[in-house]
Model the fold of this input.
Amino acid sequence: MVIIVTGTPGTGKTTLSKLIAKEKEFEYVDLNTFARNNNLVIGFDEERNCDIIDEDKLSDSIENAFKDKKVVIDSHMSHYIDPEIVDICIVTKCDLKELKARLEKRGYKEEKVRENLDSEIFDTCNVEAIEEGYKPIIIWTDKNVDEQLKSIF
Ligand SMILES: Nc1ncnc2c1ncn2[C@@H]1O[C@H](COP(=O)(O)OP(=O)(O)O)[C@@H](O)[C@H]1O
Ligand SMILES: [Mg+2]
Done:
């Protein structure tokens, strides 16, 4: 069983993924680390300050690595994995005021805070996930997460 958790930076992907891993006994996978360890990094996106992942090879690698396992995959790029091999797609979302505070607390510069707030306003990860063929489940991380997870587990 494969769960992916996508969403704007700061909306709570890592926190939620690790909670699911712990409570539901899933293996936690950080997609960036996985990509680096499996030769899937084909460049660096200077603008977004993140690795560019070989999307063509990504899904096969994930499928081979985690066949018959319970994994939760954490990344704002995770919705680029082929929906065919994913059971549940979660999009984390967060109230904008709270998200702004979280990003500022991280020490992000004003421009980067703005960019991420814009992504959240435009619902970018959710829209992209739907375009990829997913039916995302939204989890609001500024509200009671355990309560919302009951609709999944
Ligand atoms: N469910 C939650 N309840 C309270 N605070 C949260 C929750 N999820 C995330 N946060 C806060 O938001 C910050 C960013 O969360 P994180 O999981 O690192 O986001 P992401 O992985 O999407 O960038 C965390 O440091 C934490 O303080
Ligand atoms: Mg994270």
User: Anything to note?
Assistant: The pocket of adenosine-5'-diphosphate (ligand 1) is lined by residues 7, 9-15, 92, 102, 141, 145 (CB under 6 Å). DSSP finds seven helices and seven strands in the chain. The CA atoms of residues 2 and 86 lie 5 Å apart.
